[in-house]
Amino acid sequence: MITKEIYEQTYPKTTASTDTIIVGAANRSGSKTSSSKSSSQRGASSKASAQRSSAGRSSATSRPAAGGGTGSANRSASAHGIGTAGKKHAASVRAKHHKTKRSKQRNKLKWLMLAVILLLALAMLRSCFATVDVKNLNYPDYIQQNFIGVDGHSRTGNEMSRVNDIVIHYVANPGSSAKANRDYFDSSQSQVSAHFVVGLKGEVIQCVPLDEESSASNQRNPDTISIEVCHPDSSGKFNDQTYYALVQLTAWLCDEFHLGEDHLIRHYDITGKDCPKYYVDHPDAWSRFKDDVERFR
Ligand SMILES: [Zn+2]
Questions:
Q1: Which CATH class is domain 137-296?
Q2: 169 CA → ligand 1 middle, Å
Q3: pLDDT digits (tens, 9 = 90+) for 139-169
């Protein structure tokens, strides 16, 4: 018979410990299983997670794809919206820029036109009111100043405030000299005079100051300079020396008084008198004379 003592000897209490250990091991095994299960579960979970991850990825992939599509569309739409607005804004800016540019160009043109008009007006005023500043004239050496006396007729002493034209005459006394004509003006018999007399040898005598009227050109005495020209015969044609001196003198006067060739006139152009005869008879020679004066300047 197995007693309690024999049993206990045969199966000491440590067995229980072993059992406990075994149970513990079993438990551990169970735990392991559990752990394994957990691992499996974790695996499943991991798989699920992977699936979720995959799903997530696919979702993430799909979402961005879908979202990307939508976003892209949205961005595209948005970009389109912004692009259209931007284009409109750019067009507006360009239009404003062009408008400003055109406005500036118009203003420039206006100022330019105003400047041209002012210059033309000044030129016209200068032409109409060319003042006689004889004190500052640079007289050439070939001019001999030998003024006639103030008698109230040949030399009135009337002040001439401006010079608009230069009048050419001929002395109508063939073969007479410049000195002889000057002396005649200065005589009591004379009622006439000229600012200058050009002689047969090309000499030039000034008989009246340029700031005074001469008595040669009727109603145009107050605003013209007069030149009487000697000639060898009744045709009234000037010889070469006289012609050259006349061209030289006239060119100098035109320069000093800022006059063009259209301001050269014949006595004939004022009164219709046959003076200077040769240039009334030969208008082409008159044109050549004016051209020669212009070329000499
Ligand atoms: Zn005349």
A1: alpha beta
A2: 4
A3: 999 999 999 999 999 999 999 889 999 999 9
